Amino acid sequence: MRTIIEPFRIKSVEPLHHTTPAERERYLADAGYNLFRIDARHILIDLLTDSGTSAMSTEQWAAIMRGDESYAGSESFFRLKRVADELTGLRHMVPTHQGRAAERILFTVMCKPGDVVPSNTHFDTTRANVEFTGARAIDLPIAEARDTQARLDFKGNMDVAALEALIAAEGAAKIPLVMLTVTNNSGGGQPVSMANIEAVKAVCARHGIPLYLDACRFAENAWFIRMREPGYGEWSPKRIAQKMFSLADGCTFSAKKDAFANIGGLLCSNDDRVFQQETNLLILTEGFPTYGGLAGRDLDAIAVGLEEILDPDYLHYRIVSTGYLGRHIADGGVPIVEPPGGHAIYIDAARMLPHIPPNEFPGQALAVELYRHAGIRSVEIGSLMFAGAAQHELLRLAIPRRVYTQSHIDYVVEAILEVNAKKDAIRGMEIVEAPPFLRHFSARLRPL
Ligand SMILES: *Cc1c(COP(=O)(O)O)cnc(C)c1O
């Protein structure tokens, strides 16, 4: 059979709510043309993020009932620790309430003003947390990643020569750690090859710099390695993931991504001294080290999710269905970041709307138009999110795990092609007010 089906059936459903064009126009104006500020009940198809939006399985809901809510030493923690230890092989693990809490603790312990933290591409919260310590967050993607149309197997890779040059210029003492984001979210959801992780690790090891994975989508990355990198075609996704983690000295992880959980994160490290400091900070702001700001039941949901995410049938469906959305809009003439990523499709808004300059936020203008036209929520990843550091003007359509069916995606394809047909009439935006950090979450804008 050639048809690839969703590898699950549906036991519990949530109704969707339609809105009228006039209602959507009013919601947009009230929200300052920022889709983060629109109430979820006014959204028809929500592709804002794949974070915390997964549908949990029957096994995860069953695990939730087993949650042990003991303050210290809960059974749920040890169930999670067994799964995490087996997967990562890293010596120490603490849960955190989500990925950015792990980031804040990690960078607070490891960074000081004047330091430099390189990554293939920092995610927005990662960049903000590095910079909050007074260190600089530097992106070193491979040069080919700048061209959104280049079709590379591992377009999320780090530029290893650029990393060498940065270490030579800054000195290893100013680089407390190197990060690799797998898959590379802000770089288009593109995977990082095992060969690249190995090459980065070799450079880090030579200079005595620890390598950390921002492991949010480790399973999707493992699947791409299996499909595309010679030598891994017969490996299980789990074995590939284990090898990825074996090259790292630690990791941050958002369980809201590749653990099918609605909340949670992990911080792992091989360094006893660093881990002790991290634990002290964790107790100050997150909670006791065996729950880290989560309920015991959340730890159990994550433990089950970390195993389910590595199911080859799921990963096959996941990567193929994301590609389905990408191919259908790209074949209809919409420029996307090629090739399609793992968790999301990114429209190249600068290329689609060449009449709107970056300082008038083409990605945001497109996000607003897609909501206005069809009630679909997406997110700008460009000059609104990253201000001067933006490399591209993208609109991200993130796909929640196990939530939408093919007919939902067909509706999204139709809406995007209709918006594309009237793209010349789309106007830019300007900021009315914005906070100093992570401004895209709460800024207010107006159409020009
Ligand atoms: C989501 C994400 C984070 C932050 O995780 P949260 O759970 O949202 O705090 C960090 N890095 C990457 C690559 C992410 O996708």
Verbal overview:
This protein is of the alpha/beta class and 448 residues long. The protein has two domains: 21-50 and 311-447, Aspartate Aminotransferase, domain 1 (Alpha-Beta Complex); 58-308, Aspartate Aminotransferase, domain 2 (3-Layer(aba) Sandwich), CATH 3.40.640. It contains 16 helices and 14 strands. The chain has a five-stranded mixed sheet with strand order 2-8-7-6-5, with helices on both faces. It has a three-stranded antiparallel sheet with strand order 9-12-11. Helix 8 packs across helix 9. The protein is globular, with a radius of gyration of 21 Å. The chain starts with 20 loop residues before the first helix and ends with a strand. Bound molecules: pyridoxal-5'-phosphate. Pyridoxal-5'-phosphate binds next to helix 4 and helix 5. Pyridoxal-5'-phosphate is lined by residues 51, 98-100, 123, 125-126, 181, 185, 214, 216, 254, 256-257, 265.
Annotated CATH homologous superfamily of the largest domain? Type I PLP-dependent aspartate aminotransferase-like (Major domain)
**Helix proportion of residues, in percent?**
40-55%
Task: Provide mean pLDDT, rounded.
Answer: 96
Q: Gyration radius, to the nearest Å?
A: 21 Å
CATH T-level topology of the largest domain = Aspartate Aminotransferase, domain 2
Measured by DSSP, the beta-strand proportion falls in: 5-15%
Total domain count:
2
CATH uppermost class of the largest domain: Alpha Beta
Order of strands, main sheet, comes to: 2-8-7-6-5
Work out the number of β strands.
14
SSE succession: HEHHEHEHEHEHEHHEEHHHEHHEEHEHEE
The N- and C-terminal alpha carbons lie at a distance of 51 Å
The CATH architecture of the largest domain is 3-Layer(aba) Sandwich
Instruction: Let me know the largest β-sheet.
Output: 5 strands, mixed
> Helical segment tally?
16
Overall 3D form: globular
